[in-house]
Automatic annotation (TrEMBL):
Subunit structure: Homodimer.
InterPro entries (alphabetical): FAD/NAD-bd_sf, FAD/NAD-binding_dom, Ferredoxin-NADP_redctase_2, Thioredox_Rdtase
Entry EC no(s): 1.8.1.9
NCBIfam families xrefs: TRX_reduct
Requisite cofactors: FAD
Family designation: Belongs to the class-II pyridine nucleotide-disulfide oxidoreductase family.
Domain of life of the source: Bacteria
The keyword Flavoprotein is assigned to this record: yes
SUPFAM superfamilies registered for this protein in UniProt: FAD/NAD(P)-binding domain
Domain named FAD/NAD(P)-binding: residues: 9-298
Keyword set, alphabetical order: FAD, Flavoprotein, Oxidoreductase, Redox-active center
Protein's name according to its UniProt entry: Thioredoxin reductase
Length: 318
C-alpha cells in the first residue's frame, strides 16, 4: 500500500523573524501553515544577547526571548510548528514536493522560504576545534565572556568594524586582522575603528592558526602576506566576522539566485521564479539583514501566498 502523503496549503521553511512573521500572517489568513524550524530553531537571533533596535521593545529584549515570543504568537494563531529540517525539494510540478529529514514528503500548494543565513568561517581546523571555547562568530553573543581580556577579530567589513568597536568596550585590547591594506567597511565605521585607542589594526595579515591548550584559546598565529613575517598574538578570544552565506543550497537548480546564493525575488514582491514559491528574510536579502526587515518581508511572503491561492481558487471556481 502506498504511503498517504500530507498535503498542506502553506509550508514555511525556517523559524527566524521572517518565517514566524509569515506564519502569523498565513495563520490569520486561514492558510493553516505548517512551519519547519530547521536545525537552529529561532534562527540567528537565538545567538545574540540584547536586541535594542526592534520596535515595540522600549527597554530592549534578549534575542532568544524575542524569538520565543515570535513562536508563541505564531503558535497561538494556529501555526503547526514542527522541529525538522528540509533536506530536498522538487519544484517541477504543482503541488510542490518538500522532503523533511530525508524521510517525509510533504505536498505544498505554496512554499515560503525563510531559511536565513549563517556565518562564514575561515576553514581552519583549529577554528573548528575551539569553536565555542574561545572562537566565536558573534561578538555580541560572546564578547561578554572576554571582559578585560585581549581578543582578535578577523574581517574588514561593516560587521567586523561594528563588532571590533563593541569588543573594545568590553576587552582590554582588540587586534583587528585585515587581509588587505584597506577596509571594506564604510568610511564612518572605519573612522570609528581607527579612533578607538584599544583597537590595533593589522593590515595585510592573515590567520594561520588558532593556538590553545586543548581546552581554550591562548594565542593566534598570524602572517603578514607581504613580508611573510609570522607573529603570535596572545589572545583568549578569536572572533570571525567575514560575512554570511545564505542557507539556500537545497534550492539550487530550482530557484534563481545571485552568484553568492541569495534568492532573487521579483521587484516589490516575494515571488521567486517558481510559481507558488516565495522567499523572504536573510535568504533573499543581503543588504539590510535586520530582524525588522526580515519580519517585514515575511509578512509580504504570506500576503503574496494568500493572494496567489485566492487567485487560483477564483480561476477554478469561475
Ligand atoms: P562583507 O562581505 O561586507 O565583508 C566581509 C569582510 O571579511 C571583508 O572585509 C573581507 O575581506 C573579509 N574576508 C572574507 N573572507 C575572508 C577570509 N577568508 N579571511 C580574511 N578576511 C576575509 O560582510 P559584512 O558581514 O561585514 O557585511 C555584510 C553586509 O551587511 C554589507 O553590505 C555591510 O555593509 C552590511 N552591514 C551593515 C552594517 C551597518 O550599516 N551598521 C553593519 C553590519 C553589516 P576583503 O575586504 O579583503 O574582501
Amino acid at each position: 500500500m502506498s504511503e498517504q502523503l500530507e498535503h498542506v496549503k502553506c509550508l514555511i521553511i525556517g523559524s527566524g523573524p521572517a518565517g514566524y512573521t509569515a506564519a502569523i500572517y498565513a495563520a490569520r489568513a486561514d492558510l493553516k501553515p505548517v512551519l519547519y524550524t530547521g536545525m537552529l530553531a529561532g534562527g540567528q537571533l537565538t545567538q545574540t544577547t540584547e536586541v535594542e533596535n526592534y520596535p515595540g521593545y522600549p527597554e530592549g529584549i534578549l534575542g532568544p526571548e524575542m524569538m520565543q515570543n515570535f513562536e508563541k504568537q505564531a503558535s497561538r494563531l494556529g501555526t503547526d510548528i514542527r522541529f525538522g529540517y528540509v533536506s530536498s525539494v522538487d519544484f517541477a510540478s504543482l503541488p510542490h514536493k518538500v522532503v523533511v529529514d530525508e524521510s517525509k514528503t510533504i505536498l505544498a500548494d505554496t512554499v515560503i522560504i525563510s531559511t536565513g543565513a549563517s556565518a562564514k568561517w575561515l576553514g581552519l581546523e583549529s577554528e573548528q576545534k575551539y569553536n565555542g571555547f574561545g572562537v566565536s562568530a558573534c561578538a555580541v553573543c560572546d564578547g561578554f565572556f572576554f571582559r578585560g581580556q585581549d581578543v582578535a577579530i578577523v574581517g574588514a567589513g561593516d560587521t567586523a568594524a561594528e563588532e571590533a568597536t563593541y569588543l573594545a568596550k568590553l576587552c582590554r585590547k582588540v587586534y583587528m586582522i585585515v587581509r588587505r591594506d584597506e577596509f571594506r567597511a564604510s568610511k564612518a565605521m572605519v573612522h570609528r575603528v581607527l579612533n578607538t585607542p584599544n583597537i590595533e589594526v593589522l593590515y595585510n595579515t592573515e590567520t594561520k592558526e588558532i593556538l590553545g591548550d586543548g581546552q581554550t584559546v591562548n594565542a593566534v598565529k598570524v602572517i603578514n602576506n607581504q613580508t611573510n613575517e609570522e607573529t603570535k598574538l596572545d589572545v583568549t578570544g578569536f572572533f570571525v566576522a567575514i560575512g554570511h552565506h545564505p542557507n539556500t543550497e537545497i534550492f539550487r537548480g530550482w530557484i534563481d539566485m545571485d552568484p553568492t546564493g541569495y534568492i532573487i525575488t521579483k521587484p516589490d514582491s516575494s515571488e521567486t521564479n517558481i510559481e507558488g514559491v516565495f522567499a523572504c528574510g536573510d535568504a533573499q536579502d543581503h543588504i539590510y539583514r535586520q530582524a525588522i526587515t526580515a519580519a517585514g518581508s515575511g509578512c509580504m511572503a504570506a500576503i503574496d501566498a494568500e493572494r496567489y491561492l485566492a487567485a487560483k481558487e477564483h480561476v477554478v471556481t469561475a
